[in-house]
Input
Amino acid sequence: MTDAMTGSTRPPATSVRRWQVPGRVNLIGEHLDYNGGPSVPFAIDRFVTLKARRRDDDAVNVWSTLPGTTSAERASFTTGVTSGEVSGWAAYVAGTVWSLREAGHDVPGVDLVLESDLPSGAGLSSSAALTVGTACALEDLAGLGLDRTAVALLAQRAENDYVGAPTGVMDQLAVAHGRAGHAVRTDPSTSPPGVEVVPFAVAESGLVVLVVDTGVHHAHAGGGYADRRRESEQAAAELGLDHLAKAGPDAVLRLEDETLKARTRHVITETARVRAAVRALGDGEWKQLGTILTASHESLRDDYAVSCAELDVTVEAALEAGALGARMTGGGFGGSVIALVPRDRLDAVTALVRERFEALGWERPAAFPVVPADGARLTD
Output
């Protein structure tokens, strides 16, 4: 059987296949994917690496040195893994096996080795990299002939229905469809979800996308992220809509609850910011893009209420030191900030952010530039 993703035939049972799967940064369009709205993420040059070998039985053995695990932690289960059987980091692998099988696919036993230079809990979609990577590896070993969007949807189901993280499909689409030098505009309102690559020539313009990992880690499988999703669904229901992104400009006036008004206002304005950002990318209007990024953060802080002190301080310091724009990225309540920075201001931005953290008695944040990278790919 020919594999639609790799162009190769099913590999021999004893061969080892190596997959490199990126994390992602969401440039603009935060908390829109599960609300039925567009986003513009891009895959980054930080990766989860999976080495996979097909087995002749139904055993699934996973060895992990992922951030947050000790050296070579191991988990074992079977391809018949059931809901709730596996927890912790291994639930993302088990959930992907479960998702494929629930979709009617014959899943082979496999030995998996996981490595990563992608921070966990930093808002860079390490979980999507893991589930998409596992789905890619199993799809490859079994020769299922699935396209990238199908793989992304299976990975999303693993997170939603097995792990219990109520994410949209934006992360998985970015990880699966990423392209070097491009962002990925996603549209979950269609079936299957729409995907369009958008040129993102940031390096050629003398700019850098700087990621600052605040060190405040978050988890999507509960807490405030799930609360925001419920609030959005409640607002949509009161407006008679399937998804809140369909709300018109007058929607806020039709709601009585102040919290629901604020959540709706963010979704409406963030959707407009996505359209404006795509135009700015196409026209090379980098200052305008920076302004849009900062406005997004203000909306996430004030209307969607998913920021925190560390994120706000990072944004303020980055702007003060010369960034064109900055915003939190990811689900919020911790994680990372992205800043669009002229290359000659990179050191100044990094230094001022760290100075502010030190003054407040917070741990030194990690800061590193990222570039748009290719999505999940088979390397050998």
